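Archive entry. Fields below.
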Amino acid sequence: MNQRRFLHIVFASTSGHTEYVVDALIDSLKSIAQGWEIKETMAEKTQPQDLLSGDVLLLASATWNTGSIEGQLNPHMWVLLHDKAKTLDLAGKPCACIGLGDHRYFYTARAADHLQHYVTAHHGRLIVPVLKIIDEPYGQEEALRVWGKQLVDASKPADRC
Ligand SMILES: Cc1cc2nc3c(=O)[nH]c(=O)nc-3n(C[C@H](O)[C@H](O)[C@H](O)COP(=O)(O)O)c2cc1C
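PREDICTED_STRUCTURE:
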């Protein structure tokens, strides 16, 4: 039985892969997490305080060569986390992260590590291991569904102490 929760997804996507992943996850959550309220916001339209809204925060970004260095966050996610929200205190907020990438790059899907680092450095609480989606996300819906189930189980209020 699912308790009603509010999941806020903040994502950045340049060629549409991360957006596809977020939409596929939301699709599977419709059956796994019936009754949940889910809101998705693009990083470039997100203000620091928005990261505090909802019961659970999910950050999703692909890996880019932001600042001409490979292995970085998407530029919009970088600006949000390391400029606009650089002093934000997540104050124990339950969080989850998805990072995308391509196996042909040395720092494959390193965005996931950057997101995890932001959450822990800003006192958020990671409730599931970060998910890395490597290469095109099409056909990886089952991995998303399995991870989504983990996220739902970890989001139950009884698990928050
Ligand atoms: C210019 C450029 C730089 C990239 N740098 C990396 C990288 O350092 N590491 C990695 O794993 N993937 C890298 N990628 C691959 C993207 O992360 C991957 O295509 C991702 O699925 C794109 O997601 P998006 O469309 O949501 O932005 C790069 C892609 C491009 C075009």
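CURATOR_NOTE: Residues 15 and 70 are 17 Å apart (CA to CA).
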